[in-house]
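This section describes the prediction task in plain terms. A model, or a person checking by hand, is given the sequence of a single protein chain and must write out its three-dimensional structure as a string of tokens. No templates, partner chains or ligands are provided. The sample shown here is typical of the held-out split.
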Amino acid sequence: RWLVSRSGDVESWLVLGMLRDKAPQGFVAELAPRMDRFVFCGLPGRRGQSARQLRGKVRVHQLKATLADDPAAALDRVLPQLQPADRLLLAGSFVTVELAARHLGLANGS
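The expected answer:
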């Protein structure tokens, strides 16, 4: 409901980082009609993958999408563009959320 309740000039952004063994197609296909912009980001580690690899697994056309090396770079790209009423959804993996929280100073890293 939160994503569907849109009004005016509000934009919805999705920062998505998924591990290599996850299937992004269904996830993105479900959210695509509700998002205005996508930022695919890479994740580290042996299960990680680059943003380009992740984007290559998604067969949803007409996405306004950009690529970022990692969640921190994605946030650095997105945050300056957000307007006060815009929505930002960070999803795909606990790794994505953890790295973003650290970048924003919301996690102590332990």
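For orientation: The CA atoms of residues 14 and 89 lie 5 Å apart.
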